[in-house]
Design brief:
CATH architecture of the domain at 55-178: Orthogonal Bundle
Distance between the termini: 31 Å
Largest sheet: none
CATH superfamily of the domain at 55-178: Regulator of G-protein Signalling 4, domain 2
Radius of gyration: 18 Å
Shape: globular
Number of helices: 9
CATH topology of the domain at 55-178: Regulator of G-protein Signalling 4, domain 2
Length: 181
C-alpha cells in the first residue's frame, strides 16, 4: 500500500502518474458527444485468434520476454494482461519502435519518429513511458536526424523494465496460469 509521499515506492509513483494523465485526458473538453463515451469491458479482452502455443512453448515465456514477444498468441495475451492493469504503454511503445525500424522512407521515418516522441517520450505525453532523463535526452538528440536506431536506447530500457516488472506479474496472472493448465 502506498503511504506518505516521501516513501512512495516506484510503482506507486508510476500509478499516480498514470492516474493523473488519465484524469487530464478525461477533463479535456470533448469535440463531440461521441467522445464522452468511455468504453468498459467487464471481461478482459481475449487474445487475437492465433494458434494457441504448446505447453512447452508457453512455459518458455516465464524466462524469456523475447520468446513471448515473438509469439503472436503470447504477445496478444501479454497485451490483454497489461490492458487489464492499465499499463500497456510500455508494450505499445516497444511495438511502435519495432514498426518504426521497418520504415524505409526518410520522410515517413521522420513523421513516425515525431509521432512516437509525442505519444510516448515527451513529458506529459498521453502514454508517457518511464525512462530516465539521460535516455530521454539521448533519444531527443537522436531525433534531430532520425535513423533506424533513434529509439534503440529507450526501447532497450523499456524492454528491461518489462522483463523485470511486467513479465513476472504476467506469469503470476490468471491470463498465463490458464494457458499453462
Amino acid at each position: 500500500m502506498c503511504k506518505g509521499l516521501a516513501a512512495l515506492p516506484h510503482s506507486c509513483l508510476e500509478r499516480a502518474k498514470e492516474i493523473k494523465i488519465k484524469l487530464g485526458i478525461l477533463l479535456q473538453k470533448p469535440d463531440s458527444a461521441g467522445d464522452l463515451v468511455i468504453p468498459y469491458n467487464e471481461k478482459p479482452e481475449k487474445p487475437a485468434k492465433t494458434q494457441k502455443p504448446s505447453l512447452d512453448e508457453a512455459l518458455q515465456w516465464r524466462d524469456s520476454l523475447d520468446k513471448l514477444l515473438q509469439n503472436n498468441y503470447g504477445l496478444a495475451s501479454f497485451k490483454s494482461f497489461l490492458k487489464s492493469e492499465f499499463s500497456e504503454e510500455n508494450l505499445e511503445f516497444w511495438i511502435a519502435c519495432e514498426d518504426y525500424k521497418k520504415i524505409k522512407s526518410p520522410a515517413k521515418m521522420a513523421e513516425k519518429a515525431k509521432q512516437i516522441y509525442e505519444e510516448f517520450i515527451q513529458t506529459e505525453a498521453p502514454k508517457e513511458v518511464n525512462i530516465d532523463h539521460f535516455t530521454k535526452d539521448i533519444t531527443m538528440k537522436n531525433l534531430v536526424e532520425p535513423s533506424l536506431s533513434s529509439f534503440d536506447m529507450a526501447q532497450k530500457r523499456i524492454h528491461s523494465l518489462m522483463e523485470k516488472d511486467s513479465l513476472p506479474r504476467f506469469v503470476r496472472s490468471e491470463f498465463y496460469q490458464e494457458l499453462i493448465k
